[in-house]
């Protein structure tokens, strides 16, 4: 872990100052240095500037700072112009002062690559060994990435992520090659040579395709990182490097055969266009970003609303069902009409906590979680079915529940399930929550599995690849809110424990994806333990976001966010932007608190 890459390119261009005979060039989307040195020594630097802090390296690699490493890899991105047959060009050399011998060098010829090194171990005067890799074609005006690995008698060359070419020679690379008073030369051996371009390590598609994690730590010369400078005119966007394309600014210019393959950047719209010879074609346009959310509609409900479910019934419209706390007149369903939600249907509920919309084939259902008994002392939650004839929801099935908080509907292997969260039974918070399975023969939901929960508030179902998961938010076990919430995985026809996560009055789980990454956010509502001293504030605590670690096969903490008795998370995206909004309910002093929208 102490091995760090040594960047020869940055040593040639210290502090972004170009040496004589170098110029910055961009071609095929990659920035690089074109080497045309008339003074070769300008492209050199002492080896002592590269081999420093040698005590950090294992002794088998560096004996002293004046020794070249015995085992190493060289990584180069370059673009070679066509060269005459039988001509050799050096990519780099390491040479001692006042000596014509190449201590270490890499040169290319038509269809070949040669690695050279000097050894004094077998002869008094020294001997130069050449390792040749045949069938390596670089002179095609294209970018190529070379990775040369050296270890003893073994030499391996990889070109553009292809299968490595391995060569074993009789003479091993020397274990003690002195670099005293030696210098590196880029693109030459202290002589005037031809032209080629060395690429920036991060430029274009050459990097990142083979997984060379090592090069991620290479420093990139400042001159290759510069942004375009502000143009003094309204014509051409000036870059600090030469470019083979023209970009016009300002108002829309003409697009004729003369402007074909030229670009126009519309500053006001932040859009880039390409002329095809007759019209400007959009290449890149700025995506609209959500800068803020403004109030759209105040929805008047009959009592304190505990939850809202928004859904669409095909060919009918958009609806919103509110779970209202007080029994008379119950909960309401609103329909989107003339640009706003308007009352549509009222349903008798008993301290309703939430609604869940789901479908089975062409059947449309809406389930309510009732928290208290009805006027006859019966405690049940109800599944309603959409009546196409009456154009409203009608009672379909009653299911016995115990202070139900939430329903979750999901499909596994073609079968429909409905899970209810039972919060408590009387004063007992440690009771079973139930998962029901749809029986197509009877047309009813039947008990499939019970799972022990503690004052549970929420179920969250999600899938990752072929696997199905169900997370429960446990809130209170009768003495403490500092308890474990659990994630279950579907195996062999039932849910089995996958992972337990410590939570503090967990009220909600929210799963979301950003690219290929999977996140799981928990809303912690309050911290209370009857056996512990009271905290300064029960309600101002961290809610946490976890990320799935594929290697560890578990969710690991990704980020903490301070929330105030958080009851719900909701993830959404606008274009390429990802957002997470938390519903804060109480800060220990007032219910009038801000809820927050976070942007990733």
TrEMBL record:
The keyword Repeat applies. SMART domains: TSPN. Residues 26-200 form the Thrombospondin-like N-terminal domain. Keywords: Repeat, Signal. Gene3D superfamilies: 2.60.120.200. It is found in: Cell projection, Stereocilium. SUPFAM superfamilies: Concanavalin A-like lectins/glucanases, DPP6 N-terminal domain-like. InterPro entries: ConA-like_dom_sf, EAR, EPTP, TSPN-like_N. It comes from the Eukaryota. GO terms for cellular component: stereocilium. GO terms for biological process: signal transduction. This is Thrombospondin-type laminin G domain and EAR repeat-containing protein. It comes from Phalacrocorax carbo.
């Amino acid at each position: 872990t102490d091995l760090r890459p040594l960047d020869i390119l940055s040593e040639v261009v210290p502090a972004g100052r170009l040496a004589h005979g170098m110029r910055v060039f961009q071609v095929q989307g990659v920035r690089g240095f074109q080497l045309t040195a008339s003074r070769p020594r300008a492209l050199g630097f002492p080896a002592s500037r590269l081999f420093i802090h040698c005590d950090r390296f294992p002794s088998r690699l560096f004996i002293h700072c004046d020794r070249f490493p015995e085992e190493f890899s060289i990584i180069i991105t370059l673009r070679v112009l066509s060269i005459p047959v039988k001509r050799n060009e050096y990519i780099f050399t390491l040479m001692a002062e006042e000596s014509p011998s190449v201590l270490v060098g890499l040169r290319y010829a038509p269809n070949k690559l040669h690695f050279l090194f000097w050894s004094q171990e077998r002869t008094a005067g020294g001997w130069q060994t050449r390792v040749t890799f045949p069938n390596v074609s670089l002179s095609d005006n294209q970018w190529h990435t070379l990775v040369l690995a050296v270890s003893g008698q073994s030499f391996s060359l990889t070109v553009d992520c292809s299968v490595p070419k391995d060569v074993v020679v009789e003479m091993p690379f020397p274990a003690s090659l002195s670099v005293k008073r030696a210098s590196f030369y880029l693109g030459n051996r202290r002589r005037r040579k031809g032209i080629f371009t060395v690429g920036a390590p991060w430029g274009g598609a050459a990097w990142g395709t083979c997984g060379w994690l090592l090069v991620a730590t290479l420093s990139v010369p400042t001159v290759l990182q510069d942004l375009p400078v502000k143009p003094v005119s309204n014509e051409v966007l000036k870059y600090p490097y030469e470019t083979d394309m023209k970009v016009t600014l300002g108002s829309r210019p003409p697009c004729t055969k003369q402007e074909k393959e030229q670009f126009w950047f519309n500053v006001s719209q932040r859009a880039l266009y390409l002329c095809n010879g007759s019209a400007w074609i959009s290449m890149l346009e700025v995506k609209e970003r959500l800068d803020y959310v403004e109030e759209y509609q105040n929805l008047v409900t009959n009592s304190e609303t505990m939850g809202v479910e928004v859904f669409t019934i095909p060919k009918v419209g958009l609806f919103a069902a509110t779970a209202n706390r007080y029994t008379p007149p119950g909960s309401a369903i609103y329909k989107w009409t003339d640009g706003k939600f308007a009352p549509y249907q009222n349903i008798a509920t008993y301290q309703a906590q939430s609604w869940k919309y789901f479908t089975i084939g062409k059947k449309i259902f809406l389930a309510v979680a009732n928290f208290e008994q009805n006027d006859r002392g019966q405690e049940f939650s109800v599944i309603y079915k959409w009546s196409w004839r009456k154009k409203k929801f009608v009672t379909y099935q009653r299911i016995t529940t115990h202070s139900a908080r939430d329903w979750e509907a999901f499909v596994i292997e073609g079968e429909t399930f409905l899970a209810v969260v039972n919060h408590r039974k009387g004063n007992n918070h440690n009771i079973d929550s139930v998962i029901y399975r749809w029986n197509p023969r009877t047309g009813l939901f039947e008990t499939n599995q019970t799972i022990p929960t503690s004052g549970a508030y929420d179920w969250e179902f999600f899938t990752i690849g072929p696997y199905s998961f169900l997370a429960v938010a446990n809130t209170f076990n009768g003495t403490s809110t500092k308890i474990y919430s659990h994630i279950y995985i579907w195996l062999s026809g039932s849910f089995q424990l996958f992972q337990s996560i410590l939570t503090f009055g967990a009220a909600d789980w929210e799963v979301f994806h950003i690219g290929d990454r999977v996140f799981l956010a928990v809303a912690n509502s309050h911290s209370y333990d009857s056996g512990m001293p009271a905290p300064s504030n029960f309600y101002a605590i961290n809610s946490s976001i976890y990320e799935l670690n594929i290697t560890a096969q578990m969710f690991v903490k990704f980020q903490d966010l301070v929330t105030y008795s958080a009851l719900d998370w909701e993830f959404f995206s606008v274009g390429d932007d990802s957002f997470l909004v938390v519903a804060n309910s109480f800060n220990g002093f007032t219910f009038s608190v801000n809820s927050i929208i976070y942007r990733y």
